[in-house]
Design goal:
The complex is a heterodimer. By secondary structure, chain A is mainly alpha-helical. Chain A contains six helices and no strands. Chain B has one domain. In chain B, α2 packs across α4. Classes of the chains: A mainly alpha, B mainly alpha.
Amino acid sequence: MTQFTPILSLGGGLLIGLAAVALMYFWGRIAGMTAIIGGILPPFDRDWAWKATFLAGAISAPVLLQAAGQQIEYDVPVSTAALIIGGIVTGIGVTIGSGCTSGHGICGIARFSKRSIVATATFMVFGFVTVYLIRHVLGGAI
Amino acid sequence: MRYLIVYLIGALFGTGIAFSGMANPAKVLNFFDVMGPFDLSLLLVMVGALSVAIPGYALIFRKRNKPVFTGEFVLPKAKLVDAKLVGGSATFGIGWGIAGFCPGAAIPALGLGHSSAFIFVAALLVGIAIARFATRVEFFTASRQAS
């Protein structure tokens, strides 16, 4: 059971949106995590420096928040095998599909890209179906 | 200076993800579990982000012909909804439903310091490498056939 957190989730969303807008305003780029992670893997693209810097910011912020005493809820209700399989499948999917929740779901929808709207609808539906199958058909087997 | 701003934008993104609950797989999986302990919170993350990003982008593209620090806005050029987009996105949805992490949430989750996030990100990188290798093999085969 997780608590419904409307204020935190809406507020967090506002900050994510603000980050996406700021990156476009200052650097002219989409805040899509798939492309940002991809940029620091070989073959390195010429954008790797800002991407590495963005990643450093994204990782260090939660470190600082926790160091400042902020509690951040975190619970992984799946097995290590599920994390590994899910990670590999996610990596393949976002690379082939050219984006994930941040790139398609926020930045793409925000500029009314038809591709991103289709991509977002697709990965959401498959997320719902996968969780339904794992939890209610397979009985939470993985 | 330019890189300090990008660092701060990344930190803003990471802070938003951390507060929103996106970096908490239990919450993500409950959002997907309509028939179980359904948690609607993550819909509000999307609503919050889009309520800023939609008018923000519109304003930027109307008022400016280039970004502050670089020469041009770089936007995806592809327009076609193709099998790669749909198949890749479906695959991502399956992975998201299995582990409860999306890439944009897993990166800030590293900063929370739990080993599970590191395991996921390592697997994510392997997945990205596999997809790149596979598509490049396909590319080489295609170009060989073409020549």
